[in-house]
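Journal club prep, notes for RB
We'll compare a predicted complex against what the paper describes. Inputs for the uridine-5'-diphosphate case:
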Amino acid sequence: MSSPPYKRILLKLSGEVLMGSGQYGIDPATTARIASEIGEARAMGVEICVVVGGGNIFRGLAAAAKGFDRANADYMGMLATVMNALAVQNALEAIGVDTRVQSAIPMPSVCEPYIRRRATRHMEKGRVVVFAAGTGNPFFTTDTAAALRAAEMGCDALFKGTSVDGVYTADPKRDAEARRFEAVSFSRVLADDLKVMDASAIALCRDNNIPIIVFNIREPSNFARVLRGEGVSTIVREAA
Ligand code: UDP
C-alpha cells in the first residue's frame, strides 16, 4: 500500500456532508464515519487540520434573502460551524484521536481561540485541529476560511470533501455531456466559473500554490484512497 505524498493537509468538510441522508443538522452515524476516516488518514502519518462549514444548520446568504440583516445572519452561520466543529471533535475523541477546536470568534468556555502557532504545535504533536467560525468575518465563506487556514498552516494541499466526485465541465445532474476533469488549472476554474469554491478561495490557493483536491466524501473509505492518489477526484493546480 503506497503512503500518501502529503505531509500536512487541510480537509474542508461542508456542513451538508454531516447531515448524512437527512435534510438538516448533524447525523451522528455519518459524523462518526467521517471521523474514523480522518483517524485512518492520521494513522497513515498525515498531519490533518479541518475546516467545517455550517450549511447543514444555517446559511447567512439564504437568511439574508428572507430579510435578515446580512452581517447578523453571517454571524449566525459562523456559530453553526462551531456546533459542527464540536460534533466532529466529539466523534474523533470517541475513537481516541486527540482533537482541538479553535474558533475564529473567541469563546473560551467552549474551545480555544484561533492562535496560529498553537495550532501548528497541536499538529506537530499529532492532534487534529478543527477550525471553527470560518474567518470570523461576515461576507466570507468557510471555503475562503479553508484556503486561508491552509496557507497559514503551511499545508501541502487542501482536500475538499463534498457530495460530488470532482469538478465537471458543467453540472452533471443537468447536462449529460458534462465530463469530470482529472486536473484543471486555477485560471480555468476562475475564467469558466467552474463550481469548485468561491473565487476568493481559489485565488488564495493559487497565490499560495496550494493544490485543491475535490472528492466525494460521502463514499466510504474514499478519503484514504484519494490521499494515496488512487481514488476518483479532480486536482486543481497551477499548470493542469
Ligand atoms: N460564514 C461567514 N464568514 C466566514 C465563514 C462562514 O460569515 O468566514 C457564515 C456564512 O453565513 C455562511 C455560514 O457561515 O453561509 C456557513 O458557512 P458555509 O456556507 O461556508 O458552509 P458550508 O457551505 O461549507 O456548509
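Talking point for the session: The two ends are 26 Å apart (CA to CA).
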